[in-house]
## 1
Amino acid sequence: MVTWKSAPHLILRTESGSRYLPLSGHNCWTFGRSDDNQITLPDRWVSRAHAMVQQTDLGEFYLIDLGSRNGTFVNGRRVSVPVRLNNGDRVTLGQTELTFYSPTKTMADPDDSDTEDSGATAVLSVRRLISVMVVDIRDFTVLTRQLDERMLSEIIGTWFRRAGNIIREAGSWVDKYIGDAVMAVWFHSAPEVGHEGVSKEEVLRICQALGELHHMTQELSDRYPLPFPLRIGAGVNTGYAMVGNTGTGDRPDYTALGDTVNAAFRLESATKELRKDVALGETTYHYLSAIKASRDLFEEHRVILKGYDRPTLTYAGSFDDLDSFVRVSYQEIEV
């Protein structure tokens, strides 16, 4: 017989006592201020759609932040990618605290199969408003032919490590290291009635991170005896995408999938044709244009992206343009 003590559940601590929240009957539970959530939290620090707990096909529970303004935390650490919950974990949403319980089984579950494949894909996905940044090292193939392997390894290893640090400090993580490129993802709140989904501060954070990546690349280029200066190009795109696990149960791999991601890669490639450093998607520029400083710095172009039937509207500029935009924009916001 399964009792509430042995079944997965959350305990919500309130001033009037503890509330038992069973995690059964579904595979997904949403939390937020809005009444259309499975679990409504009357906490003004909690977003309308704040977070979600999802159970995978392997029976594991994951906590996913839904782009909340004030963040979601597990044991005091902010959640940026889906986090697997363990028995006793403390979950904080705004000023609301919950504890997750899923006691370790002491006996074999009669419903479990002895032949269960531990490498099966743990299905976990959610549709999110995101910004994707793809940064590519220019002329990398030429560089590999002209540099000693040890020096090449040192330079590229240092670049990737520093890039990861810059991106993490900007509130994201490196989703993928792809040869001579990195892909980073930022989560945003879905737009509410009368509100934008991406704030000025979020847009500036992404642009500032991109500028710091450029300056870091220049610094490495000056430090090492290279046959030509090290340069990067970037594409940034904003839109909805499915974010989930494409890996296996024992080796999860969380990533974003869909046209928003594909277009970011194509925009980065388009910078070479446009002879620019940075190309922004139309939606990214829409949020950027809320800051007056952006309007004269990025040129409008229509480009044919690989795999797309129709021309795509993009806004492109140089890293000097980007530096000017970031500098003036912070002054504009402070005023």
## 2
Amino acid sequence: MSKTCLVLTGGGARAAYQVGVLKAIASWYPRVHHSPFNIICGTSAGGINAVSLACYNSSFRLGVKKLEWLWARLHTERIFAANWSGVSRHIGRQWLSRMQSEHLEPRPFGLFDNRPLRHLLNQVVNYSKLEKQIHQGSLDAISITTSRYHDGHAVTFYQGNNKIANWRSSKQEGVRQLLHTEHLLASSAIPLLFPASRIDRHYYGDGSIHQLAPLKPAIEMGADKILVIDLINKSQRLNRPPKTPGLAQLGGHLMDTIFSDSLEADLCHMQRLNEFIASLSEESRANSTLRTIDNLHLSPQLPFEPLAEENYCHMPQAARLLLRMIGISPRQDAAITSYILFESDYIQSLIRRGFDDTIERETEIKNFSLNFHYLMCLFFHLRLIWLINCLDNIAQRYR
């Protein structure tokens, strides 16, 4: 059986869209069926989704249900300190940290205090289940990609079976470790917005920053098929007259570039490599270490900015004021707001949109997963045998 990998990209609050996609895919499988993904790779907020899903890999629908339950109960103050007292204390600590002696290490800078997110992850994620899923064979590997600040390397921390070895290439490396909350905080630490996290001796930030080859961890861990759930809309843009770009628009443009451009290049490179392998003779393919890797790229059909504008009023007032103080006007340009708006109405809208977009591509996704048809036929065949046995037992009782 081929190994299918799920790649979840970063995007802050936009990652709720991935929950809707997974919810639609889970609805096509039996209630107690294991996950169709042997390998799960996550970056930034997608890393939080990846770990939460991997903890229940032996029961796919249960894992998606748990993930939806978590997102449905999120709000901004559970991600970062957004009330008046929390914002003022965080600004005071940052200021005092810069005033202290040079012999003391200052706090990592971040516009927002993400300690509430650390507390939430410690509460809801049972990291010990990851090793159990791997030991049972339900999961081959789970990886979280971060960016190491001191040398600019993209470091992928992974947990998997013994067949997977560490890898190292230009600006990228894979390190085997038991995953925990600091890995998730590091991978989701959007620059300037959230502080970096310290793992061992180094500081790490959002994994999308220096991730030149987002699909490399999946390939290194043995994936034969890769399903990518992206969070950047490319087919349609907002129909608005051009205006002078402000700080919010520039910041949103940079975030879109960080989270998406390297993925597009990697997918294009993989497609060309697949075409090259297909052009080789059978003898050349047998002697080559290259292999064809199928991939399917799912992305939003509509932009998220209008939803962020509609729900901007639900963001806590202190957080809105802090954004105003640094020159960001989220109502006029919601690109940045769409990443940090963790409010219920906005999140539910993203989940519904992800579900609807996936249902529209149901045939394409099922055709991509060749194992799906085999498993469905096997499942209905077993149910038919069970039904026949039940009818036979009933018949024997009345003889």
